[in-house]
Amino acid sequence: MGTFFHRITLIGPTGASETLEAMVDTGAMFTTIPRPVLDRIGVTPFDSIPVRFANGQTERWPIGQAEAELNGTKRPILCLFGSVAAPPLIGAHTLEAFLLTVDPVEHKLVPKEALLM
């Protein structure tokens, strides 16, 4: 499918925000943001969860909740606190929350319907 980037704005509990170009990664369950960004906007972890990497290694990473804005729409999301060097990733949980899917040909996010089947 290839990779592409999309702009995401993260908004902390006090209204502080930061906009990033994040890689869209449908293989990642959660959005991952470098910890310094989340710290700057006042997001704090509420738990830590086991995270498995492509190489099979598992680590516990902190997870928190932020408000995110994609394409002019705001929604709450869960995000992992990534390392300083880790690129920001938009994961499947965020795509589902925003009712977005990936157009692999045009390399863009497109709206989809919510399903209750």
In short:
With 117 residues, the chain is mostly beta strands.
Report what the structure shows.
10% of the residues lie in helices and 51% in strands. The protein is mainly beta and 117 residues long. The strands form two sheets. Strands 1, 2, 3, 4, 5, 6 and 7 form a seven-stranded mixed sheet that branches. The mean pLDDT is 95.
Which structural category fits the helices and strands? Answer: mainly beta
Strand content: over 45%
CATH architecture call: Beta Barrel
Query: Quick check: average pLDDT?
Result: 95
Number-wise, the strands total 9
Low-confidence stretches: none
Give the SSE string.
EEEHEEEEHEE
Terminal-residue CA separation: 27 Å
Helix content: 10-25%
Categorize the overall geometry: globular
Q: Which fold name corresponds to the CATH topology?
A: Cathepsin D, subunit A, domain 1
